[in-house]
Amino acid sequence: MNKKNVIYLTKEGYEELKQELDSLKQKLMYEISERIKEARELGDLSENTEYDEAKNEQGRIGSRITELEQILNNSEIIENTDSNQISVGSYVIIKNLNTGEERSVRLVNPQEADIFSNKISVDSPVGRALMGRKVGEVVKLKAPAGSVRYEILGISSKSLNQE
């Protein structure tokens, strides 16, 4: 596999994407096929909105399946062994020095990013600023509201369970 095209995923992220792929394949094979079949039975397809909607959804699901298959085929599951330096998959406790707020985040690839689960993309401004850093370092980044400084309080390869 060409190293340039490798997508690094956490084990959890890989499993979530695989589960989504399996679910979409099931939906595409059964539910959408059934909807298309029922819509065809209604007669004239040129003015059949149910048929058009089902075909459009089939296309969207097919595109997502292709995207997921490409991601999973080009992925490599990362194993964090060095918890002294922030890398993809690291759990990090950061303190916003402007507000004093502490939070725990996990750095992941864009395919896994989910702000509501505190999974921050390594391609985000915060992710880029944290990559390769160590405990005790202070990183500074520009945000729309101005400059923000974060102190790195902890790094782990396992969940820190701090919210």
UniProtKB/TrEMBL annotation:
Domain of life the protein comes from: Bacteria
A GO biological process held by the record: regulation of DNA-templated transcription elongation
Stretches that traverse the bilayer: none
Keyword Thylakoid in annotation: no
Keywords carried by this UniProt record: Coiled coil, DNA-binding, Elongation factor, Protein biosynthesis, Transcription, Transcription regulation
SUPFAM superfamilies: FKBP-like, GreA transcript cleavage protein, N-terminal domain
UniProt key word Repressor: no
Transcription elongation factor GreA/GreB N-terminal domain sequence ranges: 7-77
UniProt xrefs under Pfam families: GreA_GreB (PF01272), GreA_GreB_N (PF03449)
Transcription elongation factor GreA/GreB C-terminal domain segment(s): 83-156
Function (record text): Necessary for efficient RNA polymerase transcription elongation past template-encoded arresting sites. The arresting sites in DNA have the property of trapping a certain fraction of elongating RNA polymerases that pass through, resulting in locked ternary complexes. Cleavage of the nascent transcript by cleavage factors such as GreA or GreB allows the resumption of elongation from the new 3'terminus. GreA releases sequences of 2 to 3 nucleotides.
Family label: Belongs to the GreA/GreB family.
Protein name: Transcription elongation factor GreA
Organism: Pseudothermotoga lettingae (strain ATCC BAA-301 / DSM 14385 / NBRC 107922 / TMO) (Thermotoga lettingae)
